[in-house]
Amino acid sequence: MNLIVYLAGQIHSDWRAEVEEKAVEKKLPLTFVAPQTNHDRSDDIGDTVLGEQPGNLYRDDAASSINNLRTQVLLQKSDVVIALFGEQYKQWNTAMDASTAISLNKPTIIVRPKSLIHPLKELSNKANVTVETLDQAIDVLNYIYE
Amino acid sequence: MNLIVYLAGQIHSDWRAEVEEKAVEKKLPLTFVAPQTNHDRSDDIGDTVLGEQPGNLYRDDAASSINNLRTQVLLQKSDVVIALFGEQYKQWNTAMDASTAISLNKPTIIVRPKSLIHPLKELSNKANVTVETLDQAIDVLNYIYE
Amino acid sequence: MNLIVYLAGQIHSDWRAEVEEKAVEKKLPLTFVAPQTNHDRSDDIGDTVLGEQPGNLYRDDAASSINNLRTQVLLQKSDVVIALFGEQYKQWNTAMDASTAISLNKPTIIVRPKSLIHPLKELSNKANVTVETLDQAIDVLNYIYE
Amino acid sequence: MNLIVYLAGQIHSDWRAEVEEKAVEKKLPLTFVAPQTNHDRSDDIGDTVLGEQPGNLYRDDAASSINNLRTQVLLQKSDVVIALFGEQYKQWNTAMDASTAISLNKPTIIVRPKSLIHPLKELSNKANVTVETLDQAIDVLNYIYE
Amino acid sequence: MNLIVYLAGQIHSDWRAEVEEKAVEKKLPLTFVAPQTNHDRSDDIGDTVLGEQPGNLYRDDAASSINNLRTQVLLQKSDVVIALFGEQYKQWNTAMDASTAISLNKPTIIVRPKSLIHPLKELSNKANVTVETLDQAIDVLNYIYE
Amino acid sequence: MNLIVYLAGQIHSDWRAEVEEKAVEKKLPLTFVAPQTNHDRSDDIGDTVLGEQPGNLYRDDAASSINNLRTQVLLQKSDVVIALFGEQYKQWNTAMDASTAISLNKPTIIVRPKSLIHPLKELSNKANVTVETLDQAIDVLNYIYE
Amino acid sequence: MNLIVYLAGQIHSDWRAEVEEKAVEKKLPLTFVAPQTNHDRSDDIGDTVLGEQPGNLYRDDAASSINNLRTQVLLQKSDVVIALFGEQYKQWNTAMDASTAISLNKPTIIVRPKSLIHPLKELSNKANVTVETLDQAIDVLNYIYE
Amino acid sequence: MNLIVYLAGQIHSDWRAEVEEKAVEKKLPLTFVAPQTNHDRSDDIGDTVLGEQPGNLYRDDAASSINNLRTQVLLQKSDVVIALFGEQYKQWNTAMDASTAISLNKPTIIVRPKSLIHPLKELSNKANVTVETLDQAIDVLNYIYE
């Protein structure tokens, strides 16, 4: 049984490649989908498609409309969602993707360091499982196939 | 027509009283509901009800389970949601409440300063309206009754 | 049994007052809700609340976000929807409101002149009832109470 | 990941072939579905299947019932919807298809010329993305696969 | 706790008055709603509102569109549905109303004579409770209040 | 695009074979599913699986529980439903299957002779299309693929 | 804001009266609803309404159909569910009511002694809050009103 | 037509292997999914993934969060659910899985010995079919393919 896994979270490091590698090592039949991970491309996509916008608010709104369409398509196709939180960045769209997934009854795993226990407590409580490392998240996915 | 408005956001200042006052001034038939705004009470509620928990993770999980029950009851009763973001705090449960509201088709207004345009762009794009001040949010509610 | 009726359609004439009058005459326990019917107010509301926007596209998008919030609140409260089409104007948000109502399982009455039979045929077929005059629409509402 | 794209809009020109060509050029794994694009066939289908109807209203209602069945089957199978608006024709079933898609949480792209910004503002605001050309719409679909 | 009860079934006898009387006797806080019970009015309503239709099929379709709107409004307001079947008449819209109620998760009671056990077996199995007399149906409603 | 079509209706004649043949002739990529068409098997299935039941009511309830499970599995897998009504038999589970399909937003075609226009008028009005012959129903399915 | 609370659990002791008393003491604006708490009445209701059934299976099925109708009406009206588990009895319909409530997004509190932690662990994990005493459950309800 | 069948129930005996064998014998195109059937693994999975927990309640909650994620993934993929009850064990998560399946409109078969008729009566009444042996459950699945 193949499963599609949406990887929500920051796009400043290549943590998704790490997840995919671990899944390959364990021979899990998973397909991973994600937001646009090229950060500049993600920020520019509105202006790139629609032309230069009159200021940052409009530029960001244009980009986010296309990013949201992409996420909506891929999240709806997903069977499981992993949402990674770290100590840097605001990560409100990670919180948004995780909450949307939970509202859509998508089984959801949150990955966050111990330092974020307190500010993420309500979201962690609503998610299915909260872990601290990507290895643990993969262990949870692996458990589905045992 | 009475409407119930859920006020999502931080609980470190008394911004909700300000909203309620403005609504009274404009004689809008609104009932406001909100998370527990006594910060210590909110953090302690798990230990208070369930007894002392073995460490911060468990203490936070216990508290959040009761906070989430409260929010679920009140959010489901609401007709409109206002979610306030500011420059301080992580505010991931504000993002969670706003996203949940949007997923439940609750009309949602985000209030955030200009400085947060970029990190909130995807969530703003999914909300109905994004404004910068509480006065503007009240103006939007007022418009429903014109 | 009181019912709430959303009156979708153009805001250039006072047809809603006519509907309300007829309902009062027949002593029907109906509450009518509607979009903003002050046309300038409706077009200006974005700039009024959010400040002047940089061009028509942005001005219209700002206004429509607030108009859509209003409609979402009121349409969700409604038990029945009447959507009036006439020979003037594009009326795409009338079509949008009627389609949204139908998708939400709100019983929907379309009012349109004979001249619009052909272009409205798919929407008419999905609505519950299509009539030609406001009197006929009121007759349908009256029939609920017989 | 293959996606099915419903192409809503007028059936008087061959714009759909243009979209499909562009998708082939970019090697996007998309399947396109659409309403009946043979205009006479679309208008006649009621009489063709059910026999001659007693007047235009009945003829149009018969045709639209079969057109609506077709659209309902194909729209429910779709992952994304593109809705094209132009300066000619009433296009109320384009608005109906786009609104239905949005209500069903289908990611939706509207394509419309600048001249239609104002009358389409509420629908544009509810869609995920609004662009001006088919090339831009294809760029948005392409972005899902990057 | 007041409950609204939709009484689906034939409109050739005054069985609904009997139900209401029994409810009054037992002082149950129930409001009863029903389809149009004036049979001629029900059959004529399409022509009455829309004008004379060109033949029976069109006359019946026009009438049923208004009857269906009425039923949709009232069924959606209901907390419980009673569907009465008897040995006369086709009663397919009774079956339709009961099935729709079950699909909408409305608790549903079927009343039918022993002679109809076999042809109603699949529908009875999907309903909550099947009884043979109106008294038994009222007993079931009464049980909610004990 | 393959579609699954549920064929609701009586199981006393082999009309389903006729439908399948016509679909093969037209090379339509359709898979047909249906209730148990062996009438004795359908009536006996409760006793066969669960052992002899104490009387007809219990025998019929046991059989219908297994028939309903079968229908629920297959109807949920279907993309389109055809419901055939004829002049014989009560056909209340045909009405039940058609109504359930409509409530689940399954595009639905009713086939009935002219003589049943009046008693089926409300159900016909809720279905997408009503025709008089199986050939017409196949024409409608064929139209999806044009 | 009045809330309706469904009290799921065994009907062999008068624990519900205790809950209501505590709510009155705290002046909480709560209405409590519950299954039939007269145990004999609950077991006999099928035979009482439908006549004597041919054996225990049929007697139990008849009773449960009426008990389930009652629960469905009252659970759908509820805003919060409390499900009490104790060391005696099988309590599978308590588990059923709690699971149904959770599936319907009703905020749910489980009350169970420490001795049942292990067998109830999956259900506790899906509920919003799990406590050990009725006082704690009331404390959680009280927290909604602070 | 392949179907996926979720096998809910205790994990202390190898009854699932028996079901799968019987399905192979009958050449039914079924894929079976199930909870973790290694009992120690199921109980330990929380500590194994997350590290040792501070006491049984926390250990059980951690394990159940991962077990629930697994069940949610697999149950959502299923077309039919079989829930086995026996005389040993509390089996509240069997009741939970069956109730969740019913709430999600998954056709559900309960298998239970005669001795459990009374305590399972409400759940049996809500399930599609209740049988006494695994052979009977397989007979019901087989019937779908006849």
TrEMBL record, chains A, B, C, D, E, F, G, H:
Entry-linked InterPro entries: YtoQ_family_protein
Domain of life, per lineage: Bacteria
Protein name per UniProt: YtoQ family protein
Organism: Virgibacillus natechei
